[in-house]
Amino acid sequence: MKIRLAILLSIFMFITSIYASDSADSTKAVDSEKLSTEEIMDAVFDHILDSYEFHIITIGEKHISLPLPVILIDNGKLVIFSSAKFHHGHQPYLSYKIADEGSKAGRIVKIDDEGNILENASLIDISITKNVFSLFLSAIILCALLIPVGKKYKKNPDKAPKGFQALMDMVFDFIINGIAKDTLPKNKYWNYVPYLLTLFLFILINNIMGIIPFFPFGANVSGNIAVTMTLALIALIVINFSGNKHYWREIFANPNAPVWLYPILIPTEIIGMFTKPFALMVRLFANITAGHIIILSIISVTFIIGSVAMAPVSILLDFFMYFIELLVAFLQAYIFTILTSLFIGLAMPQHHEN
Length: 354
What we know:
Structural class: mainly alpha
Order of helices and strands: HHEEEEEEEHHHHHHH
Number of domains: 2
Largest sheet: 3 strands, antiparallel
Helix content: 55-70%
Radius of gyration: 25 Å
Strand order of the largest sheet: 4-3-7
Distance between the termini: 65 Å
Strand content: 5-15%
């Protein structure tokens, strides 16, 4: 049984390693043609960056992808069309195109009749991109996990959980007893359990989806700075709205510091309010993105060297990195959640006066 499981797992990791490498076509003979470093880097960044279509597979010279809806507000006018009109970003459509260079590379811009970008155009892009599609998918998965379990608890509150409910019960217990109770005041920790549970599962689901290399997964949502910034902004709001009078007094009138030190201490404390969520944002973004780049870079060694002999080495290294990334997926979700809970707890210092 163990041997069968190992063989199946090896085959699975081999397949995922091959699909994960968007760096080369699966039908290309690597002995006859090497890929340049620039081509590999373009493929790596195509994977980790957002796009207006969801690439599924490449067969020879044919790219199979799911076009996503482009939604633009141009000078107050709503414009909607399919991203397939751009032909994988190679052609403009109407008066729009996907910029391929400069600060707006990868984004939709408005152009004139000669194809020049109109810098002052009033264009708001609210398109359903690959990352937005994956965010909707992760939200659906999260609801599909929690809503049925919540109904079972509500229907039979005293009944011992079984099956999938028992598995989720372990997650609930971990969040409640392993994070909330250890970092928050005893009389208030329960109010933050729903937020912490949702935060942990949302990050974990997106982390795992990001390392599954086939459609409809594979988007680098947790490695998108906009997503991690949003999570950090929510944490900033929750932390500071949870602050009690002792928290704000320590920031603006610390009783343990001399008054002459306030001009230095107060700005430092205010900056500290923002550096905590900023650290959360950068940590999650950097770790997840770095993991994706390492996996794709390792498997790309075969195509850079142009020798099939390197394939087993790349696959073994990639096999190992997938397990590391799976560990990182859980670890980063845990770190973001427990630090958020800790910062909320620090905003509610309990001062007992005689």
